[in-house]
Design a protein that fits this description.
The protein has about 375 residues and is an alpha+beta fold. About 45% of the residues lie in helices and about 15% in strands. It has a six-stranded antiparallel beta sheet with strand order 1-4-5-8-9-10. The chain has a two-stranded antiparallel sheet with strand order 2-3.
C-alpha cells in the first residue's frame, strides 16, 4: 500500500480497532508539549476554515458590544481568534502546571475508568462539553458568522478543549487516555449541535449544582491496626480545602442535571411559563475512593466503616432557563447566558439506591 492509500485508510477507518491502535502509536511517539503545539496549529486551521470568503461589513459602530452582529464583523472575528488562543494557552499552561506536572510523564497509553466515582465524572464530561459548545457557538454568533459556521465553531472548539484534557491524561502515569471519557464528550457536544441544528434553540440544557459538604471528623484505624488517620484528612487530600477545589473535585457535592424547557415542547398558545424548566438530576454519596472506600497512606491501607454506604441519587425538580428571561439589555442577556450553566436551587424529589424517597425543600447539590 502506498503512502497516500495508507493515509486514506487511517482517516476513513478511525472507528476501527486497528486505526485506534495506529493513532495511539502516533501519539505515543510525541511529547506532551509537541501535542499542545499541534493544538495551536489546529486552532488556526479551525478559524481559517470558518472565515467567510465574501466582503465584510465593518461599519457597525452603533452595535452594542454585547449584541450579536447581524453580518460578519472582521474586528470581532480577530478579537475572538485572539481570545480563543489566549484562553487555550492559559487553560493548557495552568492545567499542566497545577495538575499534571506533579505526576510523572510517560508514553501515551489507554486507561479504562468506567464505573469509577459512580460515573459522576462521565456525566460531568457530558455537561462540560455541552456548555463549552453552547458558549463557543454564541461567541461565533457575536462575530456575525452564519448559523452553520457558528454550530461548527461550537463543535470544534468544545472538542478541542476536551480532547486536550484527555490527551494530557494519556501522557500521565497516574491516569491514561479514556475512551469512555471521549464518548461522554461526544455526547455532550452532539447534544448541543443536534438541538441547535434541528430546533434552532437549546430545549434541553445540561447544568450543574454543587455545594460544599462538611464531613465528620471520624478517626480511622489502618487495616493492620498500627496507625490512625481521619476522614477530614482523606477528603482534604482528594477534594481540596476550598470552594473552588471542592466544586471541581468533590463528586459527593455535585449533581448533573438535564433541564427540559417544557414550554417549547407544547403548543404555541400554552400557558406554561417559558422560563420554567423541569430538571432531572443524577448524583451519588459517600464516595471516598474511585471504586471503593479504601486508600493507602505510607503503604498502609485504610478502609472506611461500612456504615458509609456508597449510593446513587436520582432527582426531579424545577429549574429556571435564564436565557428565556425577557430583557432589552444585551449585557444582561449575555450575563444570564453565562450563568445559565448552573442549576437554580429549587425543591426536588429524590429517589436513591438505598430505597429512600426524600423531599428537599431547597436542593443545593
Amino acid at each position: 500500500m502506498d503512502s497516500h492509500s495508507l493515509e486514506s485508510a487511517q482517516l476513513d477507518g478511525m472507528s476501527s480497532k486497528t486505526n485506534r491502535i495506529n493513532i495511539c502509536n502516533i501519539l505515543s511517539k510525541m511529547k506532551l508539549n509537541q501535542y499542545i503545539s499541534l493544538k495551536y496549529a489546529l486552532i488556526l486551521v479551525i478559524w481559517c476554515q470558518i472565515l467567510p470568503s465574501g466582503n465584510s461589513q465593518n461599519d457597525l459602530d452603533s452595535l452594542s458590544f454585547f449584541e450579536a452582529s447581524p453580518v460578519f464583523h472582521e474586528k470581532r472575528f480577530n478579537t475572538a481568534l485572539g481570545f480563543t488562543i489566549g484562553t487555550y494557552s492559559a487553560f493548557s499552561y495552568g492545567l499542566y502546571n497545577v495538575w499534571y506536572r506533579q505526576f510523572e510523564q510517560e508514553s501515551f497509553h489507554l486507561f479504562n475508568d468506567w464505573g469509577e466515582w459512580q460515573n459522576i465524572d462521565k456525566f460531568g464530561h457530558i455537561y462540560t462539553a455541552y456548555f463549552q459548545g453552547v458558549l463557543c457557538y454564541k461567541g461565533a454568533k457575536w462575530t456575525g458568522l452564519s448559523e452553520e459556521k457558528s454550530i461548527l465553531t461550537g463543535i470544534l472548539c468544545a472538542s478541542l478543549f476536551q480532547s486536550t484534557i484527555e490527551v494530557m491524561d494519556g501522557f500521565s502515569s497516574a491516569w491514561g487516555f479514556s475512551l469512555t471519557d471521549m464518548a461522554a464528550n461526544a455526547i455532550g457536544v452532539s447534544a448541543f449541535a443536534l438541538q441547535q441544528k434541528h430546533w434552532g434553540e437549546q430545549r434541553i440544557l445540561f447544568k450543574v449544582s454543587s455545594w460544599p459538604k462538611s464531613y465528620d471528623n471520624v478517626v480511622i484505624t489502618s487495616d493492620d491496626g498500627q496507625t490512625t488517620s481521619d476522614l477530614i484528612t482523606r477528603t482534604n487530600d482528594i477534594y481540596g480545602t476550598n470552594y473552588f477545589e471542592s466544586f471541581l473535585k468533590d463528586y459527593n457535592a455535585q449533581t448533573i442535571w438535564a433541564s427540559v424547557n417544557v414550554h417549547s415542547f407544547l403548543a404555541d398558545d400554552n400557558r406554561w411559563p417559558s422560563w420554567l424548566n423541569l430538571a432531572i438530576g443524577y448524583s451519588a454519596e459517600n464516595m471516598f475512593g474511585g471504586y471503593e472506600n479504601t486508600w493507602e497512606i505510607d503503604n498502609r491501607q485504610f478502609t472506611l466503616d461500612p456504615s458509609y454506604n456508597r449510593y446513587q441519587e436520582f432527582l426531579i425538580g424545577f429549574d429556571v432557563d435564564l436565557s428565556r428571561i425577557k430583557t432589552k439589555s444585551h449585557f444582561l442577556k449575555t450575563l444570564l447566558s453565562v450563568f445559565n450553566i448552573f442549576k437554580v436551587p429549587s425543591p426536588a424529589l429524590e429517589i436513591n439506591t438505598q430505597g429512600e424517597l426524600k423531599l428537599h425543600f431547597v436542593y443545593l447539590n
